[in-house]
Structure prediction request, 580 residues.
Amino acid sequence: MEDGFFSVLVVDSHPESAALFEKSLCAGSEFPAHVEITASVPEALKKIKMRSYDMFLVEAAFHRSQETAPLLDSIHTLELPMPFVLMTPIFDDKLLRAAKQAGIANLLVMSENHYDDFASRLKRIHEEFKKGVRSKPGEAAFFDLTREKSDNKRDSFGHEPGSIMDELTGICTHSYFQQRVVEEFSRATRYKYPVSCLFLDIDHFKVINEEKGYHAGDLLLRECADFLFENCRISDVIARYGSTEFSILLPFSNYKESMEMARRIRLRFAAHDFKLGVEIVNLSVSIGVASYPEDTMSRRGDLIAFSRHALLRSKATGRNRVTQYRHVENHPGFEIPVPKIEESRVLEFQRKLSEVVELAKRGSLEAARALIQALETKDHHTAGHGTMCAKYARFIAETLGMSVEDCEAIEQGSLLHDIGKICVEDEILLKPAKLTFQEYEIMKQHPYLGYKILRPIRFLREEATYVLHHHEWFNGEGYPGRLKGNDIPLGARIISVVDSFDTIRAAGARYKKTYPTCEAAQELVRYSGIQFDPRVVKVFIDVLKVRRELSAGDYDQVLLDQKIAELPDKDEPLYVPREF
Ligand SMILES: [Fe+2]
Ligand SMILES: [Fe+2]
Prediction:
């Protein structure tokens, strides 16, 4: 810095850019700077050898033509302490990826409007560079200039030594990742900053390869890599580590930050629609997390080994979850003997067992679904009722921000809620006339019968409870347990709402009512606080509006809001996520 001014070197081939830079970085701006503009890379090389600059901006076109390589090498050789930023007219994902692979800092979007806050953006980049902070793409920059030569071996995918990019996915290779871990770990220990590692494996990918073929599997892997790339910070190093394994290095992130990131990735991954042509594929991911210095590490490779160890635990305990290494290591409560064989072997068998359990779970669910189909085939009035309830219940659960596991349990519980009716005699089940008192009493046993059918299936215990209570009323007047308010499981309260909605709407449609959806929604509101949890009703009405099944004019929202406001426990959260 000279005379209180920053010095900025710009490589830009457009003559009109000079005026814009000078205007944005003039003496009165937030980041007053001396700007030197060159139109060629060789000239820029000469300049950086002759004097020092505080920042280096290069037009992205130079990077596309690979002219920036000698600049990067010079900066590396001369160990120049300045942020290096590529300027681009639009945010360009491919360019960002290529820049990152080359070890460049970040992209700076330079459309006309962006010149307005150009000075403050440069100032932020500079400050964060000085502090060593790394931020999101397009926002700020941090530079990594260190690139050592890799070893002479090919990595497990057969990449050449020094190869940075995995050909299939376009993200870093396994060998480059290991190299970067060594560098970041050494730097973290030297300068006392945290560094974390996430290890990820896509759940049940083997089934995808077997069912859809390896080519489809490859396309999905590429999509997964793109997904990770979009959901990580520019400073994170993302690599394909094994056939379906990915690893992410998070410099400057401690346990808390890296766990937040891992949880966010897990949730978004499960909610993401991966596409195979026109087909949508939903996937989940298991993650292990390790962090330095919070985990005691003696070797540079421990960061990878520990996070991978935690991943094995995630897979062995049900998948689609995040595990911290320190929780794998610390067994609370009592001392256990140290095993004489490697824990990885135990975890491997746990993983195999969990695969068998998962297959059994799918089998049980298929059998239960077949029963529901048999029931709905008997009574054409109820055809599709379970599926419709499951669809709406899932929308409500997702709107409430429920975990993937809870959403799944509620969806399945809704699908199976009337499964107990399969035990009721056809004379009663299919009787077209009104049921007698005794017949009605028999019919009322179907929640308990459904519970008895599902309860022995270990994987459907949560669902069994929802089925048992789906006819409870919010005011305690329902059956079979006469539970009241929040004592009724939330899943059962949701099923109660969607069950009644679909039944009323289907009946309305049968009798050719003009607005069966509107009428069914009004009925839910009328019985809010009596039969239904008003907060669930409100969420459901919102879902119907968002899905345009109910127009704003169809229903007066104010009435419902007033009703909800009268509730004494309205401040209690409707859903509290379970921690893993
Ligand atoms: Fe029912
Ligand atoms: Fe039902």
